[in-house]
Target: Fructose-1,6-bisphosphatase
Amino acid sequence: MAAPQTTLGADLEPPTTDLITLTRHILSRQRALGEEASGDLTMLLIAIQVTSKYIASNVRKARLINLVGLAGASNVQGEDQKKLDVLSNDIMVNALSASGKCSVMVSEEVDEAIIVGGSKGTYAVVFDPLDGSSNIDAGVNVGTIFGIYKVADPSKASVADVLKPGKDLVAAGYTMYGSSCNLVLSTGQGVDGFTLDEALGEFILTHPDIKIPSRGKIYSFNEGNSLHFYEPTNKYLESIKYPANGKPYSARYIGSMVADVHRTLLYGGIFGYPDDKKSKDGKLRMLYEAFPMSFLTEQAGGVATTGTQRILDVVPKNIHGRCPVFLGSKDDVEDLKKFYAAWDGEKKW
Ligand SMILES: O=P(O)(O)OC[C@H]1O[C@](O)(COP(=O)(O)O)[C@@H](O)[C@@H]1O
Model:
């Protein structure tokens, strides 16, 4: 008896012959800029792409090659560093230094800003080499987050080149290591998503021109902290969990910012890591978490706020500074902002 036919075969299209790889996409963006483009940003993004592929292969086989668990040291935030945190950091620092296009780096895993000696690099890169550390050993989605600033004068490159508001970023992105490896990038002309074809070793354009829905049905907060949340946050969460009309929102929280933001960009809704009575600045770091994710959210048509201020207008005072983060669909984040606007309580942000 013949095997029952699945419908899957019905609409399988022949493979495209016009493959848009990340490199081709970046080069076409450079060409679109004409004379203006020196090619430096292109080379830098290509270097970052290679680090994502290498980190992806190590994350995927981490349990097999004893790359899970602690590295035995802690970072400037007092967090115990995972082996993969340190490995991913070193992979990025080496590749960015060798690119010759980067003269300043800030990493979540390195206390001070790295000034690349003798570099004429016209860019500065801020990055979280492996975001979502608490999920690494369980094989749950983790990621790399990066933001790129222009360096005013490479010969005088300093930390001042990155202590700038997020709106000065020229590019931002993240790579998510999960069931598939996705790299999402913006150079200020919208947001595009790529999926790693492991066989080809190439990131292929699979999510062109990502536009976040204006309103979603999902909220993503660690409600385990709601005891400490300020009133506006709790009132907002109540309003979507017990709506006067319509269906309550659904909760989704992975605990890896890259994964929670990736889902929010694609499905809509709101992701939040508020400040609260216990942590006055919240948890997420401005330079290499809040700013790049806010840049991508705005480029995709969403909104990113501290509750009272546009995140991309915040001026960082130190390289590991933190700020409250609420980002996602325009209508959802505007709803949250109304609760903050109506509240006259005292708080830092
Ligand atoms: O466990 P919590 O308190 O909910 O925090 C989760 C948040 O912290 C982070 O893990 C912080 O990032 P790191 O893992 O890079 O330190 C985010 O990815 C995530 O959104």
Notes: Residues 40-60 form the longest helix (21 residues).
